[in-house]
Design brief:
Length: 129
């Protein structure tokens, strides 16, 4: 006999076939940045999930709320999570105005350095809440 967990939100096949960006819509800086990205060419092929409005939706992606709030997450269609600065670089690779930047960052292996700065920013942002 098959059982189903009806309380757990489901991810559609369309959502699985596109990258998903998890962002804090309650953060003014984060909201402005995401609003900018959503205006870029390529953004229509990305799922945008405001975790401040969709806490229960995180269950479908198996991300806990605290982790999502502490670190930027992007889920690629192959099931890989890209977090922190690595998430931004992955996101930029999908947005036409930022593709060259993401290629340069990858070419010169700068993502780890950017992530070092991101970790400090994220700690500061979390303390402010």
């Amino acid at each position: 006999m098959k059982t189903f967990n009806l309380s757990k939100p489901q991810v559609t096949s369309k959502e699985k076939s596109r990258p998903t960006v998890f962002y804090d819509g309650a953060c003014p800086l984060c909201s402005r940045e995401i609003a900018h990205y959503r205006q870029c060419s390529g953004s229509d092929d990305i799922n945008w999930l405001d975790i401040s409005q969709s806490k229960e939706q995180l269950q479908a992606y198996e991300i806990d709320y605290d982790s999502a709030m502490k670190r930027f997450h992007v889920l690629s269609p192959d099931g890989t999570y890209h977090t922190g600065a690595f998430g931004f670089v992955y996101l930029w690779s999908k947005l036409k105005p930022y593709k060259a930047l993401s290629k340069l960052i990858n070419l010169f292996s700068l993502a780890s350095l950017l992530d070092w700065f991101y970790v400090r920013f994220a700690k500061w942002r979390t303390k402010r809440k």
